[in-house]
Amino acid sequence: MRPIITLISDWRLRDPYIAFFKASLLDAAADAVILDITHHLDMYNIGQTAFLMKQSFHRFPKGSIHLILTNTSFSSTYHPVLYTFEEHHFIGEDNGIFSMMFKDAGIPMVGRQYVDDHLCAIDKILRLVDAVAKDTVESCTTAYNDFHISLLEPAFHNKNQRLIEGKVMYVDAFFNAITNIPVPLFKEAVGNRPFKAVIRSSNEWQTVLYSDNYEDKQSFILTNNPLGCLEIAYYQGKVSILADIGEYSTVTISYE
To answer: How confident is the model at residue 217 (pLDDT cuts 50, 70, 90)?
Structure first.
């Protein structure tokens, strides 16, 4: 089976660096299938990266290799870390992103690290990708469990107060605001009950409805984003601009 390699970064596409990196990958693994998750993350924003990666990886086949390049130093002391979770392989710098994605899984975090002071950073990544593809990781890496701890803030649900609180984690190219509130949590808690969504202190929306599609032409709606979390949307409008919503804006949903 051809190895599937995904890329996520803050590198943008204006410059040729992503193309150069893909060329190096293909030189090392000519039969690889390379898929881009996104390269337009906010610069150095590992929280945003961790959120998108955590919500996206299960869309790809098991055995996929996910290269996390956001806020990568590429210094001479850069030694990539490999962490395997649910038969997916994640390679990147331990700048806190691994714990953001997997610390709440409830299992001890043990990875592998590729250390070779004679290679440049990109060559180390390529060697580690090759080792994963050939199942030779243990012969060229050392055990690694000293992960830098940095946590994503999860959505909060208070059943007694009938309250769900989360944050906007990502604003997409259509200016929709994606929250960290999982759709299953919302549906299970709220069901068909009336609810009120409040975004920040200056924007209180009492007529917000939930809709599974964008055909509902209410002014603002909560809907299911492909990432599996609630999205705040506006039919053919730019909700983040109209409502002055930005990353980490607080979203509070109260229900009857």
So the answer is: low
What is the per-residue pLDDT for 204?
65
User: Which 8-state DSSP code applies to residue 225?
Assistant: -
CA 25/CA 29 separation, integer angstroms = 6
Q: Which residues contact 198 (CB under 8 A, 6 or more apart)?
A: 204, 205, 251, 252, 253, 254
Torsion, Cα of 98, 80, 4, 1 (10° steps): -120
Structure tokens given for 239: 């909700």
Per-residue model confidence as pLDDT tens digits over 24-48: 999 988 899 999 999 999 999 999 9
Sheet strands (E) in 10-79: 33-38, 65-68
Coil, helix or strand at residue 163: strand
Predicted TM-score (pTM) of this structure: 0.90
Cβ partners under 8 Å of residue 15, min gap 6:
none
Query: Could you report how far apart the first and last alpha carbons of the chain are, in Å?
Result: 51
DSSP assignment letter at 57: G
- In this prediction, residue 201 carries a pLDDT of 52
Q: How far apart are CA 44 and CA 3, in angstroms?
A: 28
In the three-class reduction of DSSP (H, G, I as helix; E, B as strand; rest coil), residue 237 is classed as coil
Cβ pair 213, 225 in contact under 8 A: no
